Amino acid sequence: MFFTFTNQGAGQNAGQLGVLHVEGSEDSKDFCIAFNEQWVPLPTHLDSTPKYPLVEAKPSTLCQVPENPSKIQDTAVAIQRGNCTLFSKALYSQNAHAREVLIVSNDSLFTPVANSSEEYAQVTIPMAVISHDDWIKYKDKDFGGNVKVQMYAPPTDLLSNIDGNLAVLWLLAVGTVAIGAYWAGITNKKIMRSVLRGNTNTDGDDSNANREGESAEENSIEVTPLLVIVFVLLVCCTLLLLYYFYKYLVYVVIVGFALASCNGLYECLHPLVLWFPFGDCKVPPNQIPLLKKEPQIRTVLLIPFCLAIAIWWGIERNKSYAWILQDILGISLCISLIRIIRLQSLKVCTLLLVLLLIYDAFFVYITPLFSAGKSIMVEVATGGDSKESLPMVIKVPRLRKSVLSVCLRPYSILGFGDILVPGKLNYYQCRN
């Protein structure tokens, strides 16, 4: 499992990634680029990399001789993707005495390849690809005057892809599974004791135990094979709806997550609040729906506290520190779900695991075959072109910074499904 996290955190193959360093009189910034060593290898250190002004080709796709070859002489020339081959773009640039070629992708990064080995041999200037989003960021940023760029490929090794946040993520996931399964096991034992004792006991301790067991049973959900099948079908439909209507439904998911995680946080903190030595007086008799049972003051005050955490996250969800709030809410929700969802038998657990395996394999590896090479699962998980992302993940930012950090995901993430499914399997063991 730890190596799975490593691969998720590493992102793309770092051996084909480099850095475009842009520096002006007022500011500088690094952008991620993709290259192919079969063309002309990029320098490996910034200090030894030559600087060139970056100019846009005219015509923009450079599928023909440039309008004014002298304007791209001794420059790094930016060329839109267009319909012609990369080889022809590079050859037109080279004949105009450009020093570097930067292909602007229509979408994400891709490795520039030629149609034959002879094409590689004919090109003598470096070529790299920048994503469309990064190109827009470059265009929108004010670097000041005398802007120069440098393209280079910092050396990497296996350890450069491993970050300390993977260990933190692993501990959070294992801790969530352990706590949720243990708590679920305790809850199940209370329910079983309540069933065995029945409601005929008059002894105070037994009555209290019965009430605890009845309360735990009321708050739990018994999962049957039919419910498992319906659940997986609903997940598939939801994923497809998110894929086609992401920019609308993502906000529905965000609101739903905030409400559900608020309840999960309350469920997790409720037993701890009962240990407080104050606030144990009860609410006076009333007809208010939520307060009819006359709960203790300390549990009532816990409700606005949990709501405040969820609202705080909802407002600040795109800030750099919001991952802390999201992890608190997400872990609480996972623990709560592991505790209240009860599996009837190992057969139900096995059915759930098999169906989810098929679901994962299909939407990650099979869907690219008939969806323009895009994985539906990956597109939904990353948010595509949207600035919003689905919050049903535990995320930890990268702790180790490097030059190639611009090419790696800023966070290592783990979906709730990778926590809940092992959690339910562990719960099944705990109940026995």
TrEMBL record:
Residues 51-134 form the PA domain. Its main location: membrane. GO terms for biological process: membrane protein proteolysis. It comes from the Eukaryota. InterPro entries: PA_domain (IPR003137), Peptidase_A22B_SPP (IPR007369), Preselin/SPP (IPR006639). It is a multi-pass membrane protein. GO terms for molecular function: aspartic endopeptidase activity, intramembrane cleaving. The chain crosses the membrane at residues 166-184, 226-246, 252-276, 297-315, 321-341, 348-370. Keywords: Hydrolase, Membrane, Transmembrane, Transmembrane helix. One of its GO terms (cellular component) is cytoplasmic side of endoplasmic reticulum membrane. SMART domains: PSN (SM00730). It is found in: Endomembrane system. Belongs to the peptidase A22B family. This is Signal peptide peptidase-like 2B. It comes from Stylophora pistillata (Smooth cauliflower coral).
